[in-house]
Amino acid sequence: MPAAAPTRVERAFLSKAQFLISTSSKVAFHILGCRAVLPAMNSNLGSVANDAHVQSMLNKYHLSTRGACNYAYRDVWGPREKSMGDPWSPANPAGTVILRLAENSLMHKEVGEFLRAQMNVSPVEHLTYSTGPRGSRRLRRAAAAFLTERFHSQKHTTYHNILVTPGLASAIDGITFAICNEGDGILIPQPLYNGFKVDILNRSNVRVVGVKYEGIEGFTGLDDLFLPDVNKVALETALRQAKDEGINIRALLVSNPHNPLGRCYPPETLREFASFCGKNDLHFISDEIYAFSVFPNPKIPKPTPFTSILALNLHGVIDPARMHILYGASKDFCANGLRMGFVCTNNEGIMGAMSSIGIFSWSPHVLQDAWAAMMEDKQWVERFMTQKRDLMVDRYKMITAFLSKHGIPYYEMNAGLFVWVDLRHLLVSKSSAQQSDYSAVRVTSPDAPVNLQRELRIAEICVKNGVMIAPGHVYLPEEHGWFRITFTVGKEALEEGLNRFLASIKEIEAESQDRI
Ligand SMILES: Cc1ncc(COP(=O)(O)O)c(C=O)c1O
């Protein structure tokens, strides 16, 4: 296959990657959690096979090209292991406060207790291959009932529509592998959940094609990213540009509620997504992993509640075989480590394609049935979700009161586990910040490489001070200077993390005294 010309996204990353590599590469790699960016975004292995670093890994470790590329550029987790293995606690004051990952530890005790009490080993079902890699019948039935009832599904979902995966990352990988060929693209509105890049690229070599909003009529700020008309134009523009660049787009993938923005899409926008996919023969994949991580925020007077695409009547809008819902235990059930997720689809071909490789990685049925027991216990779920929501409100108040007290702006949200914090003022001149002129922080600005460096520097200082936060650029926003900070952790950890964050900001401000 001839090497494809880099896409717009890749070109943007190329400039970043070249910049990273030519400046503080070690720091950048550490903060990004992987070694570099460009080949990680490039879906065409042919074009990275000649990369000197890939070649040297290939020769040194006797790897395949794809193995060498993944090792050289796409191993997000390996480099993070050390800091993740040393989390802060009152008993470990020298540990790192991890506010970078989308984890909700507020109800860990309750989940642990439930699992201990419900764990029940049935040899016939749990110590055999049982019903195989599509998942335990019990969990699939419980999941179907959960979706029908709690997602207000228009149609009756049965266990035949559910395929269980070890976490949602695995579901995204599996569905990508099932519907895309190498080099194809999936449209995702920007900013986007950074894990989508990993899930879509690392095995399938499929491209993330970001949907951009800057310059789209009606777009003036983050709120507009949820409007149907703005999305309609942005999607059409992105699809046209992808076609011009020779990319075969196969699907639209959205996160609803949105990661990293923490808001829900209204039904009109979801309908627009479905209609766009229907008209263009694309799959519509709706990742609804934060469906029950929505909470009241009095600062948003008319919040958009969560609506699942299952609740919409999309008859005649999109072929039901092209619509897929993803859900998992990681966020709403506070159990990232359980590795539990599922795809809900009417498409038997996708079920078969995913099940054909499901034997390589399935979560044990004994654990699947433990999650099923949770979902089946409606009273427990009700109590759990209410208690969790109250704790989320408390921590959200805590983080936003802290940010406000110290004059740090942020985007108000009412869903998800994190706050999108605005540090753009630390990237521009003092006079620009005073006039709220942030045109220079756009990723298309000539200052982009310098702004990226500053963003990395802020994250680096935070790490040095013992708190990990996520620099915005990993989510591909259209501006530099944003950071994602998780608030769903214990009170003491949040307090400690925020104090370390503030100390880091002061350090950055002292470093940039000379800015005029
Ligand atoms: C939108 C979204 N989808 C999927 C995932 C992956 O979740 P899992 O832990 O189930 O793999 C995450 C995790 O942060 C997420 O934010």
Automatic annotation (TrEMBL):
It comes from Aspergillus kawachii. It comes from the Eukaryota. Keywords: Pyridoxal phosphate. This is Aminotransferase class I/classII large domain-containing protein. One of its GO terms (biological process) is amino acid metabolic process. One of its GO terms (molecular function) is transaminase activity. It holds the Pfam family Aminotran_1_2. SUPFAM superfamilies: PLP-dependent transferases.
